[in-house]
Amino acid sequence: MADEREVLRADVLYGIPHGFLTGLGHTGEPDPSLLVPGGQLVLAKQVHSAKAIAVEGRFPSDARPEVDGLVTKTPGLVLGIVTADCAPVLFADRGAGVIGAAHAGWRGAHYGVLEATVRKMEELGANRANIHAAIGPTIAEENYEVGLDFYEQFEERHADFFRRGRPGKWHFNLPAYVVRRLESLNLRQIDDLALDTYGDPKRFHSYRRATHQNAAADGRQFSLIGLPA
Prior knowledge:
By secondary structure, the protein is an alpha+beta fold. The protein is built from 5 helices and 14 strands. It has a single domain (7-226), classed as CNF1/YfiH-like putative cysteine hydrolases, CATH 3.60.140. It has helices at 106-111, 113-123, 148-151, 174-183, 207-212; strands at residues 7-8, 18-21, 40-42, 52-54, 69-72, 77-83, 87-93, 98-104, 132-135, 145-146, 162-164, 170-172, 189-192, 221-226. Strand 7 (87-93) and strand 8 (98-104) form a beta hairpin. The longest helix is centred in the middle third of the chain and has 11 residues, at 113-123. The mean pLDDT is 95.
């Protein structure tokens, strides 16, 4: 059966092999050759951390590091992130030939995974003033209802990312929060595709939507970025 997943692109990453895949079609790992002929797919064991590492090759599936940011300058590698409401963020410094990918849920974003990913890119020779970043499909504010325990994880200066909802509830704007964190890094350009995972069941998996519908919540979509071999 052919892989039916749609591949969405970001204008800011034009010329860099990349794609935000929809959740349709096969549920397994995508073929990295979709982006880079003969490419090797590199995945981590994502744990909602603020950790990022530089990689030079793929990891065995049973020995993937527990990190949420991957960077490389090795041709032929395709970095992959899996999400189902969290923000997938892809990075590239074209001139330096350095790319990155980050899994930015609220915890990872709040505690610094985006900053850690950019720092690792700089260690490989990237210049943050030349880095372009794209945010893929992410749960939208209107569908991200949270309680007081969540709200209290943030400081008063973050209040503009919350909108009052039902009594004792708020709606959190994760994409806007990720944009703000990226803006603070003074990158070259940032693009949010503004695609809502929860509100588009025909294209995207959503952990929260599945939970609300008492359905299986193990679906994920992949976001990929690579360097030609």
